């Protein structure tokens, strides 16, 4: 089968598309014929050796797929060959077939196309877990979302509105802000033209943000660490800017807020039942059109390097996917 292979950590341009063996499945796994795979920022970090975890090389990147079950392991009881599914796989998704632990695979309802399903899982499920379990976001609270036009940022805007929050989107251009507002943002801040901290303070009558979904890092994180409300929750989701910030912890003391890490991939492994429950709610919201998948661009498997480069250049408005 064809797959994208990373032989050594390094530039995205070092990735190769090669013929490799179809993976053998373990008793608790299923083999999936991939129809579409989501492209995510952690995939690029993983290939470059910059992510929190580093798999043994060679490996195939890709953490979310949608397709059909080809084969099931002896211990798998809730899935059958031929069934449409969506799955989370940490690595291995940029391939024509992938073996995944069955606990992280779920049946795909007919109302969700495979391309949208592959784009729904990581971005929306990360935002859902972050806002529901980690921040415990309440209706009526003010949620600030940085990088609000990207895949996971746009998902956080939608889910924040579904949970009843007032949402302030932070973006780098008027075009991106307009997209965020189309998906539910109540207000927007163009951080290239406005002082981020002072504008958040102004929009909240000096109180600051109850919850911040922070996926940019660098200067964005620094500004938001100074614009939190008393009892607020500053969610550490990612570092799209490439800069991992340092937190003056005295700010958390004098402002009485919490800094909360969000590592969705590990959450799916440690709490699979909660993950499954979250996905049911997320798919219900999708069916009710409270959340929508915005696919910016589609690339072929052979164009995986271009897809990752497009995303790391921070040009994306929504999600990027690979189609087989």
From TrEMBL:
<dbReference type="Pfam" id="PF08240">
    <property type="entry name" value="ADH_N"/>
</dbReference>
<dbReference type="InterPro" id="IPR020843">
    <property type="entry name" value="ER"/>
</dbReference>
<protein>
    <submittedName>
        <fullName>NADPH:quinone oxidoreductase family protein</fullName>
    </submittedName>
</protein>
<feature type="domain" description="Enoyl reductase (ER)">
    <location>
        <begin position="10"/>
        <end position="322"/>
    </location>
</feature>
<dbReference type="InterPro" id="IPR036291">
    <property type="entry name" value="NAD(P)-bd_dom_sf"/>
</dbReference>
<dbReference type="InterPro" id="IPR011032">
    <property type="entry name" value="GroES-like_sf"/>
</dbReference>
<dbReference type="InterPro" id="IPR051397">
    <property type="entry name" value="Zn-ADH-like_protein"/>
</dbReference>
<dbReference type="InterPro" id="IPR013154">
    <property type="entry name" value="ADH-like_N"/>
</dbReference>
<dbReference type="InterPro" id="IPR013149">
    <property type="entry name" value="ADH-like_C"/>
</dbReference>
<dbReference type="Pfam" id="PF00107">
    <property type="entry name" value="ADH_zinc_N"/>
</dbReference>
């Amino acid at each position: 089968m064809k797959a994208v292979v990373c032989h050594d950590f390094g530039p995205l341009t070092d990735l190769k598309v090669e013929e490799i063996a179809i993976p053998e499945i373990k008793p608790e796994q299923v083999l999936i014929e991939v129809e579409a795979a989501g492209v995510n920022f952690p995939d690029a970090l993983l290939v470059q050796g910059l992510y929190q975890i580093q798999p043994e090389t060679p490996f195939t990147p890709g953490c979310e797929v949608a397709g059909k079950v080809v084969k099931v392991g002896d211990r798998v009881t809730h899935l059958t060959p031929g069934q449409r599914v969506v799955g989370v796989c940490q690595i291995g998704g940029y391939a024509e077939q992938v073996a995944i632990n069955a606990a992280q695979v779920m049946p795909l309802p007919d109302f969700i196309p495979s391309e949208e399903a592959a784009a729904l899982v990581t971005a929306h499920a990360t935002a859902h877990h972050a806002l529901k379990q980690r921040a415990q976001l309440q209706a009526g609270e003010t949620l600030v979302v940085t990088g609000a036009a990207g895949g996971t940022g746009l998902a956080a805007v939608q889910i924040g509105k579904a949970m009843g929050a007032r949402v302030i989107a932070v973006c780098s251009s008027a075009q991106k802000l307009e997209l965020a507002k189309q998906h539910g943002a109540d207000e927007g801040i163009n951080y290239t033209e406005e002082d981020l901290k002072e504008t958040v303070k102004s929009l909240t009558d000096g109180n600051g943000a109850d919850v911040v979904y922070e996926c940019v890092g660098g200067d964005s994180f620094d500004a938001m660490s100074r614009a939190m409300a008393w009892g607020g929750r500053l969610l550490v989701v990612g570092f799209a800017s490439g800069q991992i910030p340092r937190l003056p912890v005295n700010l958390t003391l004098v402002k009485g807020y919490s800094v909360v890490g969000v590592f969705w991939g590990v959450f799916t492994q440690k709490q699979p039942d909660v993950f499954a429950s979250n996905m049911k709610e997320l798919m219900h919201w999708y069916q009710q059109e409270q959340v929508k998948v915005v696919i910016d661009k589609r690339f072929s498997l052979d164009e995986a390097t271009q897809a990752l480069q497009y995303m790391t250049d921070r040009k994306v408005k929504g999600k990027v996917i690979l189609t087989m």
